[in-house]
Design goal:
Blueprint lengths: L1 H12 L1 E4 L4 H16 L10 E4 L12 E3 L7 H13 L2 H4 L1 H14 L14 H22 L1 H10 L4 H9 L1 H9 L5
Helix pairs in contact: 3-6, 5-6, 5-9, 6-7, 6-8
């Protein structure tokens, strides 16, 4: 009974809305609620207003964190995506730390890929995503272990250069930690 009360209290703080109220969005809501209840991710819920929109192919963080139903068959991918978007909400809270880390990344990687070449939408976003994707990987590692986290991260078809750096260049984690950006 106490566990049910705790889950109810927690979910009363999370506001998940459905953009189109379709069956797929309803299933995605049930999945996300299950993920939040099953895994210890509450410490990374920086915004509790969440929208599910099946028509948005690419999830995004602002102004309302929005995910889709793309990973209904894979809770770990949906959780990783959700956590990734949550970490974007830390940018404003740690603006100085993010700026310092990005400046250091610019020194390490004077030129970075953009768009379909393995980066984000522009060079600034690519540098920014070195931080966000590293946080995503650290969080997933703490939840499901390094092997499972790595498997999820390696499966992404987007941000290939960024995720490769996060997984294989220890300097990424060192820089983020040095500037106080950790899970």
């Amino acid at each position: 009974m106490r566990l049910l009360l705790l889950i109810f209290v927690f979910f009363s703080d999370v506001n998940i809305t459905l953009k189109n109220n379709t069956e797929a969005e309803q299933k995605a809501k049930v999945q996300l609620e299950r993920i939040i209840a099953t895994y210890r991710i509450s410490q990374w819920l920086y915004t509790k207003d969440i929208m599910i929109n099946e028509k948005e192919y690419i999830p995004f963080s602002h102004p309302i964190l929005t995910v889709n139903h793309r990973y209904l068959d894979n809770d770990l991918k949906q959780m990783s995506t959700f956590i990734h978007e949550q970490f974007h909400w830390t940018e404003n809270r740690k603006a100085k730390e993010f700026a310092a880390a990005i400046n250091e990344f610019k020194q390490m990687f004077p030129e970075v890929p953009v768009g379909k070449d393995g980066g984000a939408r522009d060079s600034y976003s690519t540098y920014l995503h070195l931080i966000v994707c590293n946080l995503e990987y650290e969080a997933m590692t703490s939840i499901v272990g390094q092997a499972e986290a790595r498997k999820v991260i390696e499966s992404w078809s987007h941000y290939k250069w960024i995720y490769d750096k996060v997984l294989n260049d220890t300097r990424i984690a060192e820089v983020t930690k040095k500037h106080g950006i950790t899970i």
